[in-house]
């Protein structure tokens, strides 16, 4: 019962992580405009994402423009676009794999050992996906903070951390925790199966004992002869 609860928790966390990964990939709020010193134009908010940049006017109207070229992006955003696309695919594959290994599904049969290996695979993929999400989010955040405190960079070009970065960190944590839960479930399956096969049943022990009593040894037969 405890392992089934861990499976459900891992599946829920994995599903949330998959949705969060896709959401972070498409959100434009990776970099947002910073209002510092003389830059106090609060009626316009600039958002920069992986696929487009958006300008929001007075919290009413928003205009978005897709980037004309990939080469026009900074190196961190270029790498983040590729890594986030890979993370979205990995999260989807990990979620499907975890569904196949669930106790309530019959796609992979009823063998607990096989399902344990499937859940272990899903857990490892979820953990890898969390790390893949964590790398671009932290990379972009580091570049934003570095440029913010760089006196050479113009004030109008300085940006702040957007909502997508915070959601990305949370998503990475959720994916890693969900993968760890699936790995724990797989370890529990391995321990239970090894314990089941290592300890013989009481009936088998009694039968073997009576068989030894009934069948005389070769040494005792030679004494009677």
The second-level CATH architecture of the domain at 1-27 and 74-196 is Up-down Bundle
The CATH topology assignment of the domain at 1-27 and 74-196 is Butyryl-CoA Dehydrogenase, subunit A, domain 3
Q: What is the rounded Rg?
A: 29 Å
> Regarding CATH, which class of the domain at 1-27 and 74-196?
Mainly Alpha
**What fraction strand?**
5-15%
Q: What are the segments in which pLDDT stays under 50 over at least 5 consecutive residues?
A: 195-205, 207-212, 217-225
Pfam families: PMP22_Claudin
Family: Belongs to the claudin family.
Membrane topology: Multi-pass membrane protein
Organism: Bos indicus x Bos taurus (Hybrid cattle)
Topology of this structure?
Layout: H1 2-26, E1 31-33, E2 44-48, E3 52-57, E4 61-66, H2 75-100, H3 112-148, E5 159-161, H4 163-198, H5 202-214, H6 218-224
Antiparallel strand pairs: 1-2, 1-5, 2-3, 3-4
């Amino acid at each position: 019962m405890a392992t089934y609860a861990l499976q459900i928790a891992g599946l829920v966390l994995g599903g949330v992580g998959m949705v969060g990964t896709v959401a972070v990939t498409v959100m434009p709020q990776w970099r947002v405009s910073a209002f510092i010193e003389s830059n106090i134009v609060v009626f316009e908010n600039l958002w920069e994402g992986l696929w487009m940049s958006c300008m929001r006017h007075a919290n009413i109207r928003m205009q978005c423009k897709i980037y004309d070229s990939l080469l026009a992006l900074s190196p961190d955003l270029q790498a983040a676009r590729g890594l986030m696309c890979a993370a979205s695919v990995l999260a989807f594959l990990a979620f499907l794999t975890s569904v196949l290994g669930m106790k309530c599904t019959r796609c992979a049969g009823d063998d607990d050992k096989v399902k344990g290996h499937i859940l272990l695979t899903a857990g490892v993929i979820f953990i890898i996906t969390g790390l893949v999400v964590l790398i671009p989010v932290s990379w972009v955040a580091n570049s934003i903070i570095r440029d913010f405190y760089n006196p050479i960079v113009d004030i109008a070009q300085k940006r702040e951390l957007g909502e997508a970065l915070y959601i990305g960190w949370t998503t990475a944590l959720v994916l890693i925790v969900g993968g760890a839960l699936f790995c724990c479930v797989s370890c529990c399956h391995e321990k239970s199966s090894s314990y089941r096969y290592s300890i013989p049943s009481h009936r088998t022990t009694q039968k073997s004992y009576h068989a030894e009593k009934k069948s005389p040894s070769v040494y005792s037969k030679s004494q009677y002869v």
